[in-house]
Specification:
SH3 type barrels, 6 strands, alpha+beta, 2 domains, 2 helices, six-stranded mixed sheet, ribonucleoprotein
């Protein structure tokens, strides 16, 4: 009788990640880093000593979140963090107030760019979805 290894694609495969530091990317774009303490069959996660990390360009800031419970359907990606590789990344940590300001400025610049792009497309005769003059 031969043994064939089975690979699990369910929540059961998280057992190797227990008590390890993970990065979890959520559906709304947030990135949460914490130690996986528990999970269930729906891949609902409990992270301890967690923080929300916000990236802007080559900088980041952290907001401490403590114990963080994540509903499994909100997880887009999760992976173990290699501490040695993390320390060698060319990123600089800034105070969260500075990161939040940079994030606001980045969002405003994107909004201006999108508005200009939509205006130029409309001038060329293209329909622009979600504009004020749309009838739907």
């Amino acid at each position: 009788m031969s043994f064939t290894p089975q690979f699990f694609t369910t929540a059961e495969s998280l057992v190797d990640s227990l008590d390890k530091k993970l990065l979890v990317v959520l559906r709304d774009g947030r990135k949460i880093i914490g130690v996986l303490r528990s999970y269930d069959q729906f891949a609902n996660l409990v992270l301890q000593d967690s923080l929300e990390r916000i990236y802007v360009g080559d900088a980041y800031g952290d907001i401490e979140r403590g114990v963080f419970i994540i509903r499994g359907e909100n997880v887009v990606l999760l992976g173990e963090i290699d501490g040695e590789v993390e320390d060698e990344l060319p990123l600089r940590q800034l105070p969260i107030q500075d990161i939040m300001q940079m994030q606001r400025e980045e969002a405003e610049a994107k909004a201006r760019k999108d508005k200009l792009r939509l205006h130029l497309l409309h001038k060329q005769g293209f329909s622009v979805d979600f504009a004020d003059h749309d009838l739907y």
